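This follows on from our talk about sequence and fold. Please put the record directly below this note.
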Amino acid sequence: MVIDVNAYLGEFAFRRLHHNTADGLLRLMDRHGIDKACVSSANAITYRNCQPANKDLAEATRGHRGRLIPFAVVNPTYADWQHDLRMCHDDFGMVGIRMYPGWHGYAPRDGCARELAQAATELGMIVSIPIRVEDPRERHWLVDVPDVSLDAVADLMRACPNARFMILEGIGFPNSPLGQAGGEWPCEYLIEISRLSALLKAEMRQLIEAVGAQRLAFGSGMPFKYPAPALLKLEVLDASDEQKDAIRWRNAEQMLESRGAR
């Protein structure tokens, strides 16, 4: 079993994506042995009003909910976002949200970010935050969106002790409070592995030793990226089969199944 916590459907404003329909993504998943994927809308990242993209995602995943798990994109600076969040939960059956502070004009330490994370948590939704969307070397020349600060994300997590977080597309965790031994966190969180190193700096091994394999989750970033490199990292990782299984699917499944418990 493999669960990917970092995937997308739809179009991106600045480059063409392949395998970005439900059928296309499922074929890509089948080719690489990925059973389920948490997906959000690539369109919603650059839409002023994210809600039409969330509606499109709900329609695209309908009939595939056993494998494609929808996450809403909500911008807490946009008018009446609370209504959109409730609709995504009640009408569209979204399991979580994704927050894009740099793209949507706010910071993780802002009050609106805390308000959104807490509102989603009250609905039993998971809060996921991509540290970046794409490699800076691939960005359009009109776009200058810096990576989200891990320290700022950590502050948001401290402010929302009942929330459940997935941190996507991050790197440098051993130098962050999120990846250091001895830290006591009131909230649950998972660190997605697609940018982490299994060899060389061996960031995955460092995190297992510092915070435990239960903090890591498989993710690929598809279709912005192909899933093979992330899968290979698990193959070469210096870890037990039990730890690898936890990263492949058990940790994600546990968070997905328990999302409504609080």
About this structure: The mean pLDDT is 94. The chain has ten helices and eight strands.
